[in-house]
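Input structure tokens:
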């Protein structure tokens, strides 16, 4: 009772606001989970009943089989896994190398190079989409993993994130390693990179999610059903004359599992690394 008396009106309003934001954020997820176990008629019924009238597990079988029963879902989700994982790995590695060079090496034009990299973030993807597609056509890499991956190997935002994080990295550790005779590559792989787990985890999740949700570029590059990604697969349900909303929600739920697992597996680095980052700033 004493704790309840200490709660002021502003604190109570803040708690209510945060609770409302949590509900607002979780509502689409709850809708996807419940709708994946409903029939199509139950999903489109108004007002929407959040409790399924019987569990329609066949929606998941339909989601995996696809509209044509070819089980192309397995191939499409494999394509997304390959593309997203490759882009996440290359983005982290190249951003870490570039960010380390910009943060810890002094050379003429360093700030100019950094500003030019940052300037590319101001260019929307839609502005360079057609030139990129023409390059892909000239190189004849459409309907291939190279065509899906190549434009996203390097991230300007990733370089910015790595550079800002490594700016706070103690230079004394690097100087001590150089005095001991360690080369720059050894310093990067043994000292710098292992101590960047928080920013690596953040960048890996953002890069993976960006490609996992990417629909526009695969629509241009992947015309073959075998090279389509999971967003294209889900969108195909909406293109059917008779849409199966239950199967579409089941496919969306299955497609969310890899992203959820990646986030949960890397969450500890956010929690454990934030305190280290704050202590460096102090």
């Amino acid at each position: 009772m004493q704790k309840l008396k200490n709660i002021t009106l502003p604190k109570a309003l803040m708690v209510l606001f945060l609770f409302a934001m949590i509900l607002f954020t979780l509502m689409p997820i709850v809708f996807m989970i419940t709708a994946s176990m409903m029939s199509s008629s139950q999903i489109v019924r108004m007002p929407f009943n959040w409790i399924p009238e019987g569990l329609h597990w066949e929606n998941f079988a339909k989601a995996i089989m696809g509209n044509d029963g070819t089980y192309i879902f397995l191939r499409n989700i494999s394509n997304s896994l390959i593309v997203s994982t490759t882009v996440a790995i290359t983005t982290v590695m190249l951003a870490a190398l570039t960010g380390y060079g910009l943060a810890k090496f002094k050379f003429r034009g360093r700030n100019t190079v950094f500003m030019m990299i940052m300037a590319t973030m101001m260019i929307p993807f839609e502005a360079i989409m057609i030139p990129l597609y023409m390059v892909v056509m000239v190189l004849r890499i459409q309907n291939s993993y190279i065509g899906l991956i190549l434009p996203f190997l390097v991230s300007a935002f990733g370089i910015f994130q790595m550079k800002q994080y490594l700016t706070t990295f103690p230079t004394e550790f690097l100087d001590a390693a150089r005095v001991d005779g360690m080369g720059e590559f050894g310093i990067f792989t043994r000292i710098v990179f292992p101590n960047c787990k928080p920013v690596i985890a953040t960048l890996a999740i953002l890069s993976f999610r960006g490609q996992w949700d990417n629909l526009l570029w695969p629509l241009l590059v992947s015309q073959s059903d075998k090279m389509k990604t999971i967003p294209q697969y889900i969108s195909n349900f909406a293109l059917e004359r008779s849409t199966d909303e239950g199967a579409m929600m089941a496919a969306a739920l299955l497609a969310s599992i890899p992203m959820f697992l990646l986030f949960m597996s890397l969450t500890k680095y956010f929690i454990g690394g934030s305190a280290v980052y704050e202590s460096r700033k102090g």
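The mean pLDDT is 83. The chain is about 75% helix and 0% strand.
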